[in-house]
């Protein structure tokens, strides 16, 4: 099966890189799925979103990506993020707390909404359901 | 004589204490360099990829974006000076400040009034003492900067840059308009993302005078042995790696049309909108990279300064010990001659 080079690059370090057969992400305009040989593109990702990667070896995994965008060339997909967390790095309990606090409403509505979106992305990346 | 021997011993003791402290600081700095160097290294993929993406987007038709086009008759110019919070790092801050002064004189004579943004306690103290106005100042993170630190500084400058030198940075009314126009019907739970998609000037930028150019003065970390004070323009963007002549400000926009596009790129959203989103992030990345470099350079400068201080202290201890020995011997000789003299006097 065809594969492509995929890398998740955070501001501070490269989080993950390797061969993968499928990448899915949510851009500002909607979800996209990327297969090898996709047309070159540059897209801005949702301010707080989840990226799914199916590596060519091993199980597929998720990562929470904040303030990112992605660049696709014929052979590679690069996800650049101001902040990114791999699914296993997500502190589920902390994210749930954060979500509850944010939904409780802060002084600043916009800040609270952004915080809630971030917490949801973390939970979804970790495979937890944000809404219970 | 006895008094001077005591004085010498006291000096030896205190010098040894100083040497111990400087030695400890040297070792702390040495371990910091390693970490800081690793961070500089680890942050490189991001800025490399980012530059690549920006170039691609610029070529594909966003080349008239304000970030890329040098403004005609630039007026005010923002200068970010990156210094350290603490001293005891040799000529590190002096070098940065000298370069900053040089740059500002140059800008001034070119008719661009410099507007100061300062990072680091030493820099703010320097300019405050000289009663120079600072549009922004940030302290407390010079040794271990993190990305939110860079974001605060960069966003303030971005706001000034977007306003342009004819205007001052506007407050709330403007961003609400932007926020609502870009709200693209996300799920109800995603309410926050539509707003934060457009650039929101931070509160501290409100009311600041706008600028037409942004420069940054910092100490670039080449290697352990060499750090160089560097001043570079970060906006409008010079796509420096692309061209041989990096000093032409309009290179980025000029080369956009002439170079053939290698591949048809798809953009989501369209290049102009995408560029609006990328620009603040780009400046953040540039400022962050400068901060990381400066942090590594600061530690290197401190390590060198502290090593020199430790060596000097040890030399001093050696000399003082020699003097003390002489004084001690002279004292003993004197005592013997006194005893002999006394015994002789009694024998007669």
UniProtKB/TrEMBL annotation, chain A:
Q: How does it sit in the membrane?
A: Peripheral membrane protein
Classify the source by domain of life: Bacteria
All copies of the ATP synthase F1 complex delta/epsilon subunit N-terminal domain together span 4-83
Subcellular localization, as worded in the UniProt entry: Cell membrane
For whether the record's keyword set contains Secreted, the answer is no
The cross-references to CDD domains, in alphabetical order and at most eight, read: F1-ATPase_delta (cd12152)
Any Pfam family matching the protein: ATP-synt_DE_N
Q: State the InterPro entries in the record.
A: ATP_synth_F1_dsu/esu (IPR001469), ATP_synth_F1_dsu/esu_N (IPR020546), ATPsynth_dsu/esu_N (IPR036771)
Q: Which UniProt keywords apply?
A: ATP synthesis, Cell membrane, CF(1), Hydrogen ion transport, Ion transport, Membrane, Transport
What the protein does comes down to: Produces ATP from ADP in the presence of a proton gradient across the membrane.
**Subunit note:** F-type ATPases have 2 components, CF(1) - the catalytic core - and CF(0) - the membrane proton channel. CF(1) has five subunits: alpha(3), beta(3), gamma(1), delta(1), epsilon(1). CF(0) has three main subunits: a, b and c.
Q: Which family does it belong to?
A: Belongs to the ATPase epsilon chain family.
The protein in question is named ATP synthase epsilon chain
User: Which source organism?
Assistant: Actinomycetospora chibensis
Whichever gene encodes this chain, its name is atpC
TrEMBL record, chain B:
Topology relative to the lipid bilayer, per the entry, is: Peripheral membrane protein
Localization terms from the record: Cell membrane; Membrane
Recorded source organism is: Actinomycetospora chibensis
UniProt cross-references to InterPro entries, sorted A to Z: ATP_synth_F1_ATPase_gsu, ATP_synth_F1_gsu, ATP_synth_F1_gsu_CS
Asked if the Swiss-Prot or TrEMBL record annotates the protein with the keyword Transport, the reply is yes
Q: Which NCBIfam families match?
A: ATPsyn_F1gamma, PRK05621.1-2
Name listed for the protein in its UniProt record: ATP synthase gamma chain
**What keywords is this UniProt entry annotated with?**
ATP synthesis, Cell membrane, CF(1), Hydrogen ion transport, Ion transport, Membrane, Transport
Its lineage reads: Bacteria, Bacillati, Actinomycetota, Actinomycetes, Pseudonocardiales
Q: Name one Pfam family in it.
A: ATP-synt
The family this protein is said to belong to: Belongs to the ATPase gamma chain family.
């Amino acid at each position: 099966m065809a594969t492509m080079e995929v890398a998740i690059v955070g501001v501070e370090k490269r989080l993950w890189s390797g061969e993968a057969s499928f990448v899915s992400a949510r851009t500002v305009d909607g979800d996209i799925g990327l297969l090898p040989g996709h047309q070159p593109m540059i897209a801005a990702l949702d301010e707080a979103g989840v990226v799914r990667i199916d590596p060519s070896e091993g199980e597929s995994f998720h990562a929470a990506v904040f303030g990112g965008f992605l660049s696709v060339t014929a052979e590679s997909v690069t996800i650049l993020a101001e902040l990114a967390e791999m699914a296993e790095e997500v502190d589920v309990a902390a994210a749930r707390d954060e979500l509850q606090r944010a939904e409780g409403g802060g002084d600043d509505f916009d800040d609270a909404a952004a915080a809630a979106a971030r917490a949801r992305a973390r939970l979804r990346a970790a495979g937890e359901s944000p809404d219970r | 004589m006895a008094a001077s021997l005591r004085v010498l011993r006291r000096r030896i003791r205190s010098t040894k204490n100083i040497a111990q402290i400087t030695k400890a600081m040297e070792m702390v700095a040495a371990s910091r360099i390693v970490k800081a160097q690793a961070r500089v290294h680890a942050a490189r993929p991001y800025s490399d990829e980012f530059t690549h993406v920006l170039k691609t987007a610029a070529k594909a038709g966003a080349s008239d974006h304000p970030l890329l086009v040098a403004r005609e008759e630039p007026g005010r110019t923002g200068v970010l000076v990156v210094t350290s919070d603490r001293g005891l790092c040799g000529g590190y801050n002096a070098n940065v400040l000298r370069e900053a002064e040089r740059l500002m004189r140059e800008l001034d004579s070119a008719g661009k009034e410099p507007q100061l943004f300062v990072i680091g306690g030493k820099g703010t103290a320097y300019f405050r003492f000289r009663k120079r106005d600072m549009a922004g100042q940030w302290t407390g993170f010079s040794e271990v900067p993190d990305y939110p630190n860079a974001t605060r500084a960069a966003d303030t400058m971005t706001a000034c840059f977007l306003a342009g030198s004819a205007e001052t940075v506007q407050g709330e009314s403007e961003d609400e308009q932007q926020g609502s126009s870009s709200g693209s019907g996300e799920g109800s739970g995603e309410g926050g993302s539509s707003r934060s998609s457009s650039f929101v000037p931070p509160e501290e930028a409100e009311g600041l005078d706008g600028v037409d150019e942004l420069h940054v003065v910092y100490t670039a970390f080449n290697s352990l042995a060499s750090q160089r004070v560097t001043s570079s323009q970060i906006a409008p963007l010079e796509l420096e790696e692309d061209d041989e002549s990096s000093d032409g400000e309009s290179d980025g926009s000029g080369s956009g049309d002439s170079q053939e596009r290698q591949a048809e790129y798809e953009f989501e959203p369209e290049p102009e909108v995408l560029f609006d989103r990328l620009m603040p992030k780009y400046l953040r990345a540039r400022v962050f990279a400068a901060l990381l470099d400066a942090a590594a350079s600061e530690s290197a400068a401190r390590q060198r300064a502290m090593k020199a201080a430790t060596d000097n202290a040890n030399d001093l201890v050696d000399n003082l010990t020699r003097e003390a020995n002489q004084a001690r011997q002279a004292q003993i000789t004197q005592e013997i001659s006194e005893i002999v003299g006394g015994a002789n006097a009694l024998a007669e």
